[in-house]
Amino acid sequence: MAGIAVSASPAPAPSFGRSSVASRFSPVVGPSANFRTQVYGLRCWITAKLKLRRNLQVRAEDKVHDWLKVTPLTKNITSRDARLAYDFGGETANTSSDTLDSSMDEKSLMHLKLSPSETHPPVLKEDPVLFDDQPESAASLSIAVIGATGELARNKVFPALFALYYSGFLPRDVGIFGYSRKTLTDECLRSMIEANLTCRVEHHENCDEKLNEFLKRTYYIDAGYDNKDGMAKLNSRMSHIEGNCAANRIFYLAVPQEALLDVALSLADSAQTTQGWNRIIIEKPFGFTGLSSHRVTQSLLSRFEEEQIYRIDHLLGKDLIENLTVLRFSNLVFEPLWSRTYIRNVQVIFSEETATEIQGRYFGDYGIIRDIVHSHILQTIALFAMEPPVSLDGEDIRDEKAKVLRSIRKLDLEDIVLGQLKDNSVKVDRYTKSMTPTYFAAALYIDNARWDGVPFLIKTGIGLMKNRYSIRFINSVS
């Protein structure tokens, strides 16, 4: 279980041994019930700050439906700063400022900015395709999951989409489209994902009814990742389900890194809508090196605006990370204590008990540093150590996180410990014979006024004693 642990008495900094990774931490501050009550209150505060005005008990379902609709774009709009009228209670949204947040991972899709003044490439013309299914109502929002039969899509993306649908964050007439290279039918995909769909909420009213509705709105298209004809087929199927509605489209790319650009460029040419906005969501890693990451970014920007691209780090959706931000900025009592004056060291621990990933091609290529440290761990440290942002707008938070990352001192070899999991199984994968590290420990230092001299102790690895993601900080000696 992830949690924030605080020690009220001085304690020595832990060693980097395996025993310290497996040790238990003291419980969170105060009784568990009090902490849960505080977190609930803090979440209400942060929700108000983010202007997420969603009262599902008062808002009728048709209101949620209108909330996600936009008026069709006119052909003469080409400027990114053009002002477009939306059906948000009569308000007009500026493409550079007004936002609407919504989540995926149970939370990640909640951060899609609705600023659709993009220019769209022409959609390839194809012969009309006839479909047997006819939806009861046209879709006002279409979500395509590319790589729908993969583990990520089956275990994470589709359950997250259903959680959003059940909670009312998606319109009832949403269209969910699975796209993969496997030859399947709509019913096959529905049967495949149904086992992982549960009502993971406090109240389970109408769970079966909602589940059946969601599955009926789920469709499947089989084609290649780099096949423009396949993407044109996806576009035809989406257009058929959307009917005459000016629907928006979200494309979630749950595909291998090497297929990312082929998929993104193909759908940019053949599957975007010209009647609403388009969004593309990609999972980390965003390249193998700095050069390849730059190439991926530039290739995406050649077909999409930056506001259309969403990069997902699913670990940041965990309660630990969300509560960390709320805990810091909604409690004024912590502000004077959150510095080198009162904190001796900060420990960030991420461990996984399972070691199956090391058998795979992905982890064998990337290793623990590229896979976890430079993304999950550094993002966590940046959120923990950043200065209070001007606002809780995404741009302001990114600015403060960037300042922290630029202030991190270059690592010395004596501050790093690397390790590799020993494979005792009979079947030895070729990647376990490489020098790819599976364990990483280091002491980072942030050279700024708030954290000067405070070590940030990182310990992360796979095949360890237990699954854990925790942040612990030790008080300075008084």
From TrEMBL:
<dbReference type="InterPro" id="IPR022674">
    <property type="entry name" value="G6P_DH_NAD-bd"/>
</dbReference>
<dbReference type="Pfam" id="PF00479">
    <property type="entry name" value="G6PD_N"/>
</dbReference>
<feature type="region of interest" description="Disordered">
    <location>
        <begin position="1"/>
        <end position="20"/>
    </location>
</feature>
<dbReference type="GO" id="GO:0006006">
    <property type="term" value="P:glucose metabolic process"/>
</dbReference>
<feature type="domain" description="Glucose-6-phosphate dehydrogenase C-terminal">
    <location>
        <begin position="326"/>
        <end position="472"/>
    </location>
</feature>
<keyword id="KW-0521">NADP</keyword>
<dbReference type="GO" id="GO:0006098">
    <property type="term" value="P:pentose-phosphate shunt"/>
</dbReference>
<comment type="similarity">
    <text>Belongs to the glucose-6-phosphate dehydrogenase family.</text>
</comment>
<protein>
    <recommendedName>
        <fullName>Glucose-6-phosphate dehydrogenase (NADP(+))</fullName>
    </recommendedName>
</protein>
<dbReference type="InterPro" id="IPR001282">
    <property type="entry name" value="G6P_DH"/>
</dbReference>
<keyword id="KW-0119">Carbohydrate metabolism</keyword>
<feature type="domain" description="Glucose-6-phosphate dehydrogenase NAD-binding">
    <location>
        <begin position="145"/>
        <end position="323"/>
    </location>
</feature>
<dbReference type="Pfam" id="PF02781">
    <property type="entry name" value="G6PD_C"/>
</dbReference>
<dbReference type="GO" id="GO:0050661">
    <property type="term" value="F:NADP binding"/>
</dbReference>
<dbReference type="GO" id="GO:0004345">
    <property type="term" value="F:glucose-6-phosphate dehydrogenase activity"/>
</dbReference>
<dbReference type="InterPro" id="IPR022675">
    <property type="entry name" value="G6P_DH_C"/>
</dbReference>
